[in-house]
Structures are given as C-alpha cells and as structure tokens.
Automatic annotation (TrEMBL):
InterPro entries according to UniProt: AAA+_ATPase (IPR003593), ABC_transporter-like_ATP-bd (IPR003439), ABC_transporter-like_CS (IPR017871), ABC_transpr_LolD-like (IPR015854), MacB-like_ATP-bd (IPR017911), P-loop_NTPase (IPR027417)
Keyword terms, alphabetized: ATP-binding, Nucleotide-binding, Transport
Protein name per the record: ABC transporter ATP-binding protein
Single GO MF descriptor: ATP binding
The keyword Nucleotide-binding belongs to this UniProt entry's keyword annotation: yes
Pfam families for this protein: ABC_tran
Domain ABC transporter: start-end pairs: 4-235
Length: 235
C-alpha cells in the first residue's frame, strides 16, 4: 500500500509575480510504500527541497496530485492539511529547530501539541521516542547542553513521537561532521528496520549508496529511481 503518491507533480515559484517564474518541479511521479527507506539525491537546485515540501504538504503543487495515505491533499483546506501533517507526517530539518530553553523531553512532547494528546500521555510518549533514538538519559537536559548529533536525535524523536505514516528529512546530516552524520544515518536505518517509512534528502553519495532506494532529481525531474522498475536505472 502506498503511503505517498505523486502523479505528474509540478511546482512553479513566482507564478503570480512580475519576475519570470521558476519551474522547480516539472512532472514528478512516484509512489512510496509503507516501510520504505528512500534517499532523494541530486545537485543543488534540482528540486529536492521543493519536492520534500510538496510531499509534506508544506507547499501546494502548481499541478498534479499528492496523496498521503490515499488522501488527495488538493481536497483539503489549510486547516485540514495542518491536521493531516500533525497526524501523518514527521519532519526533520538540517537546522534542528529545537527550543533552547525547553528540556529535551518538552521539545519532543511538543511534537504532539496538535495531535490532541493529554499532557501526561505526551510526556510518556516523548520518553518512549527518546528511548528509540538512544537519548532516554538526556530527557531533562536542554539542547545547548547537547552535541550536534544529539540535537538531531532529539529532532528525530520529535518527528517520531506522533507515530507518523512517513518521516521526511531534509539534509538531516548537513550540519554534522561525517562521523556524526553517519551515526544519524545508522539511526534512520534502525528505525527503518523497525518499520518506519522514511524519505531523506542527502548530498552525501556515500550515505545515499547504502540506502535501499534512491531517487535522483535533475532539473526538476526524476532522472533515475532505483526502486521503480519502470523508471530508468541509476548508472
Ligand atoms: P534543491 O533542494 O535540490 O537544492 P530546491 O527545491 O531548493 O532544490 O530548488 C529548486 C529550484 O527552485 C531552484 O531553481 C531554486 O532556486 C528554486 N526555488 C526554491 N525555493 C524557491 C522559492 N521559495 N522561491 C523561488 N524559487 C525557489
Ligand atoms: P535549508 O535547507 O534552507 O538549510 P532547512 O532544511 O533547515 O533549511 O529548512 C527548510 C525550510 O523548511 C525552511 O526554510 C523553513 O521555512 C521550513 N521549515 C523548517 N521547519 C519547519 C517547520 N517546523 N514547519 C514548517 N516549515 C518548516
């Protein structure tokens, strides 16, 4: 069953402005099944971030269809989309977007603020998610007391705490040294082994090479998809 489906998705920035419009996606189609771990690779400017934002319903496509868990996002208003995101999608970004003054536990529990979960249950599930990323013992710390790799683990725990259908990660290793980045990718592999569905943008070919499926973007299109037998193969 497909968790995410894109059909002929296009995204043009600046359609309603005076400057010339920028086509960022030019007809992207693929499906991601439950339990897949997929790398999105490609040069800077090829549309990777735009793709992730459109899949995550942070931005609406200019045309084409985006389905999350079988639901066509085009049929939902902004309020319903926020709800869909809160319940079905976990985000991880290059910059961690953690609150510096809140504890690690509170940062993770905040991932459930819009999911209608009572405070005691939020706290319990935050601790469970921290345990999954190996940070159970740092629940009472604040982000400035942690290393970069640990902060990214907190962000991953926050993405997981709502038990989303899919986790979308935009360069999660981009701010980390290579050893720490490799450890974060190893964590994504573990979560995948546990059944999580994860799409991850990465610049690092060595990290991408180890992922079971790679979608290569070029100039707003899918240039190769190692997981789709109908698409061209990666060289
Ligand atoms: P990547 O993540 O692969 O670097 P992006 O999705 O960020 O690629 O960018 C794809 C294209 O869309 C680029 O030409 C970029 O300049 C343009 N673009 C991205 N975001 C915006 C925006 N908010 N407004 C206008 N153009 C944008
Ligand atoms: P960049 O790729 O520019 O270094 P990030 O990957 O950290 O930046 O974030 C990509 C974009 O996603 C940001 O420009 C921001 O507008 C948006 N973003 C980050 N966090 C959130 C969030 N929690 N909710 C919605 N949008 C976000």
């Amino acid at each position: 069953s497909a968790v995410l489906e894109l059909e002929e998705v296009t995204k043009v920035y600046g359609e309603r402005s005076d400057r010339s419009p920028v086509p960022a996606l030019r007809g992207v189609s693929f499906a991601v099944r439950a339990g897949e771990l997929v790398a999105i690779v490609g040069p800077s400017g090829s549309g990777k971030s735009t793709l992730l934002h459109v899949m995550g319903t942070l931005e609406r496509p200019s045309s084409g269809v985006v389905r999350i868990d079988g639901v066509d996002a085009a049929g939902l208003d902004d309020r319903a989309l926020s709800q869909l995101r809160a319940l079905r999608i976990g985000f991880v970004f290059q910059r961690f977007f953690l609150s510096e003054h809140a504890t690690v536990r509170e940062n993770v529990a905040d991932g459930l603020l819009y999911a209608g979960v009572p405070a005691v249950e939020r706290r319990r599930r935050a601790e469970e998610a921290l345990d999954r990323v190996g940070l159970a013992d740092r629940a009472g710390s604040t982000p400035p007391q942690l290393s970069g790799g640990q902060r990214q683990r907190v962000a991953i725990a926050r993405a997981l705490v709502g038990r989303p259908a899919v986790v979308l990660a935009d360069e999660p290793t981009g701010n980390l040294d290579s050893a720490t980045g490799a450890a974060i990718m190893a964590l994504l592999h573990e979560l995948h082994a546990d059944g999580a569905t994860i799409l991850v943008i990465t610049h690092d070919p060595a990290l991408a090479e180890r992922l079971p499926r790679r979608i290569r973007m070029l100039d707003g299109r899918v240039a190769a998809d190692s997981g789709d037998p109908r698409a061209p193969r990666d060289p």
